[in-house]
Amino acid sequence: MLTIYGSAKSRALRTLWMAGELGLEYQHKDYLPRSAETKTAEFRNLNPNGRVPVIDDHGFVLSESMAINFYLANKHGKLNPRDPKAAALALQWSLWETDRLDRQVVNYVNHTSALPPAERKADVASAAWSEIVPAFDVLEGALAKSQWLAGDEFSVADLNVASALYRALTLDLGKWPKLQAWLNRCWERPAAKRARALREGT
Q1: What is the pLDDT of residues 105-123, one digit of tens each?
Q2: Which CATH number does the domain 84-189 belong to among 2.60.120.10, 1.20.1050.10, 1.10.10.10, 3.40.640.10?
Q3: Which of 2, 80, 136, 197 could form a disulfide with 26 if both were Cys (CB 3.0 to 4.6 A apart)?
Q4: Rounded to two decimals, what is the model's pTM?
């Protein structure tokens, strides 16, 4: 059986969402980042980096959420476009997100609302926002041309990017209506709702 190591409150959120989209049965080890469970010899044998998510798919062990999602999509023949150009776009957008939005959105939300007021740093939030705005502009432009990021249907590209923008669901995206509509479409999917419920404990 597939085992997914990682809490929905980590980047494992996107892997849990992917498993739901694919209709996979799996065992879930709800390990938070940097938790005691990730420091055990057993876990470090799976991932010497001590990071989640990690999967064990019938003995095949893989870490890094983007790699995991592409592996699962390819293995099960769903969500990674078959057309080589669309598949390349899916990879492009997934890699782009890790550079342009992943850390930036986390930093912005943490230092504007998530952290206790005494721990928030306005300069960190401002620096993050200065990177988020042009990245959101890029997404807005892409989504003005197509409903989805890599072809005519929802794919691993949309899942990977939208999952990283979970925290953006609380932001005012009025300046980016195409982005807002796309993000809502992604998170309204049944598998996305189930993954979000795992994260929010609802």
Answers
A1: 999 999 999 999 999 999 9
A2: 1.20.1050.10
A3: 2
A4: 0.96
